[in-house]
TrEMBL record:
This is glutathione transferase. Its EC number is 2.5.1.18. Belongs to the GST superfamily. Zeta family. It comes from Capsella rubella. The lineage of its organism: Eukaryota, Viridiplantae, Streptophyta, Embryophyta, Tracheophyta. GO terms for cellular component: cytoplasm. It holds the Pfam family GST_C_3.
Length: 220
């Protein structure tokens, strides 16, 4: 383990959160031992005063490393990459590095916020369930169209080559959720589908899957 002998990091997570999912991949890839602390978003654990002291935004993930507290998945991942630099999450090639940042940004700002639990609950309450589904599907398909065009010329086994980099940490949870939660058809996105197949062959991705987390329901 990368942090052998040191105090365990604490990850506040929810099994189905794609944001927490990407951090779990990073921790597993880096070989970092950590304590998993579940935060049940459906039951409102994120609004508990004790948790709000850790993350005033009331969201997951949150990482506690001794006296250091970090609440944003991208910030957590970059913190881990700088503290535990092997294997690196960014390629040395500047163009591929920029592609990784672009792919990350499309997921982080262009797709995931539109399928956030609070957002889709609000739409369903104010409009209806059909509009909620349409909203989510539109956001995912728009983002996947952009990702397909971005990655088609630089993908190898994974998003930007044959090594696992930052883009893969963001793509894997997003594609997994799109297929299993929102029933998105991946046929128009062959590059993304190929990447997803490669993730399914690797324990580092499989061990981080939502259904394998300690707070996942016994039947999903």
């Amino acid at each position: 383990m990368a942090n052998s002998g040191a105090e365990k990091l604490k990850l506040y997570s929810y099994w189905r959160s794609s944001c927490a999912h990407r951090v779990r991949i990073a921790l597993t890839l880096k070989g970092i031992d950590y304590e998993y602390i579940p935060v049940n978003l459906l039951k409102g654990d994120q609004f508990d005063p004790d948790f709000k002291k850790i993350n005033p935004m009331g969201t997951v993930p949150a990482l506690v490393d001794g006296g250091v507290v970090i609440n944003d998945s991208f910030a957590i991942i970059m913190y881990l990459d700088e503290k535990y630099p092997e294997p690196p999450l960014l390629p040395r090639d500047l163009h591929k590095r920029a592609v990784n940042y672009q792919a990350m940004s499309i997921v982080l700002s262009g797709i995931q916020p539109h399928q956030n639990l609070a957002v889709i609950r609000y739409i369903e309450e104010k409009v209806n369930a059909e509009e909620k589904t349409s909203w989510v599907n539109n956001a995912i398909n728009k983002g996947f169209t952009a990702l397909e065009k971005l990655l088609v010329s630089c993908a190898g086994k994974h998003a930007t080559g044959d090594e696992i980099y930052l883009a893969d940490l963001f793509l894997a949870p997003q594609i997994h959720g799109a297929i299993n939660r929102f029933q998105i058809n991946m046929e128009p996105y062959p590059t993304l589908a190929k990447c997803y197949e490669s993730y399914n062959d690797l324990p580092v991705f499989q061990n981080a899957l939502p259904e394998k987390q300690p707070d996942a329901p016994s039947t999903i």
